[in-house]
Structure prediction request, 166 residues.
Amino acid sequence: MTSSSAAGDGPAQQAEPVPRVLCDARALASQPPLPSGVLWKLAEGGRQLDANVVRLAPGGRIAAHTEARLDVLLLVVAGSGVLGAGPAGSPCPVAEGALVWLPHGSARGITAGDEGLTYLTVHTRRPGLGITARPDDGPARPAPAPAGPDAVPTARNDPVRSEVDP
Prediction:
């Protein structure tokens, strides 16, 4: 995290980003076995990367899938397993210290060995989700007014309400 600091008598200024140790991945990996899941994730504001330390229980797996847009680096921190190279390739054993590049567009999957598998993944940050109109929706139109003087507005005909009518 970055912090603000005052320089001289002037207004507070944002401090320069400072490199720092974020976690001890070996210490995370050596904790008593837990169910599979994320042990740590990069959550610093303003970052351009996403990173996670993930543990798979013995025999646990991430099913084969293809990531069309992201290259991913995977560093095995502890344990061992098998990296599935997709339909065109053969499985590739990985163990502590292995650094693997998963290029975008490649099929990838991983299965933990008998002692489980803990690994770090790093990739560019995924853009946030945005709400946009579909190209075939056309321009937005105002909602019709309720009919009659005693009509009760609904989400469908009251543009002020924030609920969504299915």
